[in-house]
Design goal:
about 70 residues; alpha+beta; Structural Genomics Hypothetical 15.5 Kd Protein In mrcA-pckA Intergenic Region, Chain A; 5-stranded mixed beta sheet; two-stranded antiparallel ribbon; 7 strands; globular
Length: about 70
């Protein structure tokens, strides 16, 4: 799934919420801190990770790709 942003970056937890992977910021925080999210193919536990266009996050088998708006 492509997630379009019109800023320089989006935080990982906000990306998961905006992409519909989770319903709340709390769920995003929990998933990231538990190592359930891959960023560009590697486990990432930093919920504030800056995601820029071209970056990809994977959660529950779904891929969320950041694109520029």
């Amino acid at each position: 799934m492509k997630v379009e942003i019109d800023t320089e970056f989006i935080r990982l937890d906000h990306l998961l919420k905006l992409g519909g992977a989770v319903d709340t910021g709390g769920q995003a925080k929990f998933a990231v801190q538990n190592g359930e999210v891959l960023v560009n193919g590697e486990v990432c536990t930093m919920r504030g990770k800056k995601m820029r266009p071209g970056d990809r996050a994977e959660f529950n088998g779904e891929v969320y790709e950041v694109t520029a708006g």
